[in-house]
Specification:
- This protein is α/β, with parallel strands linked by helices.
- The protein is about 45% helix and about 10% strand.
- It has helices at about 15-30, 35-40, 50-60, 65-85, 95-105, 120-125, 150-155, 170-180, 210-215, and strands at about 5, 110, 135, 165-170, 185, 200.
- It has a 6-stranded parallel beta sheet, sandwiched between helices.
- β4, α8 (about 170-180) and β5 (about 185) form a beta-alpha-beta unit.
- α1 (about 15-30) crosses α4 and α3 (about 50-60) packs across α4.
- The longest helix is centred in the middle third of the chain and has 19 residues, at about 65-85.
- Bound molecules: 1,6-di-O-phosphono-alpha-D-glucopyranose and magnesium ion (MG).
- 1,6-di-O-phosphono-alpha-D-glucopyranose binds near residues 9, 47, 51 and 114.
- This is Beta-phosphoglucomutase.
- Keywords: Magnesium, Metal-binding.
- One of its GO terms (molecular function) is beta-phosphoglucomutase activity.
């Protein structure tokens, strides 16, 4: 049976994508090109430096490593300024109730995020106490679709991969879950998340009862 839930952060528990977008857009404008919300879709779930590479390719710009590190730091400073103002009103619909439901039913809960800013976001939204383990971008070396973030989460919780369900809004995250040998629930559109065991529009559609149904597939 299912013993643990592993949650992605951005797009599953909170909508920080809008802040990432504003910060990347500002950087693109300073570099002299436009960066649309449609372009931003390509950055979801992707690490900071990989996001910068995508952004620069959209602008047709080639830069050396040192300049790239400097630009990534500038973007992160703008982003950090925005997330320090976050509070619990920015938790996505249904997320808090489902986290409580998991804990009340004795399930273990872990975070599996690519973000190096995850602790700031969890603390500002008051979500930190709901987690038994927190795996974020400061603790991993390989980005999703590599399974590292979820494999580490399961081992820290003391559960087996087949006892875990991963909640993800990104295709790369669903693939990471599969490569880790875990079941997955996609949050968003069935078109892009078709490989998940179940796709829901938000965590508002999830219950622990529904979770055990996934275990039988
Ligand atoms: C999040 C976002 C990505 C972002 C990445 C790294 O991942 O979805 O857009 O590029 O974290 O964030 P940071 O620059 O804060 O380290 P996740 O895994 O929570 O969806
Ligand atoms: Mg995400």
């Amino acid at each position: 049976s299912i013993k643990a839930c592993l949650f992605d952060l951005d797009g599953v528990l909170v909508d920080t994508a809008k802040y990432h977008y504003l910060a990347w857009k500002r950087l693109a404008e300073e570099l002299g090109f436009e960066f649309s919300e449609h372009d931003n879709e390509r950055l979801k779930g992707v690490s900071r430096m990989a996001s910068l590479d995508i952004l620069l390719s959209i602008g047709g710009i080639d830069l050396d490593k040192a300049t790239k590190l400097e630009l990534a730091e500038r973007k992160n400073n703008w982003y950090f300024e925005m997330i320090t103002k976050m509070d619990d009103s920015e938790i996505l619909p249904g997320a808090l109730d489902f986290l409580k439901d998991c804990r009340e039913n004795g399930l273990k809960v872990a975070l599996g995020s690519a973000s190096k800013n995850a602790m700031t976001i969890l603390n500002n939204t008051g979500l930190t106490p709901y987690f038994d383990a927190i795996i974020d971008g400061t603790r991993t070396t390989s980005a999703k679709p590599d399974p590292e973030v979820f494999t580490l989460g399961a081992s820290e919780l003391g559960v087996l991969p087949e006892q875990c369900v991963v909640f993800e809004d990104a295709e790369a995250g669903i693939e990471a879950a599969q490569r880790a040998g875990m079941r997955s629930v996609g949050i968003g559109s069935p078109i892009s998340l078709g490989k998940a065991n179940l796709v829901v529009a938000s965590l508002g559609e999830m219950t622990v009862t529904r979770l055990q149904e996934i275990a039988s597939v």
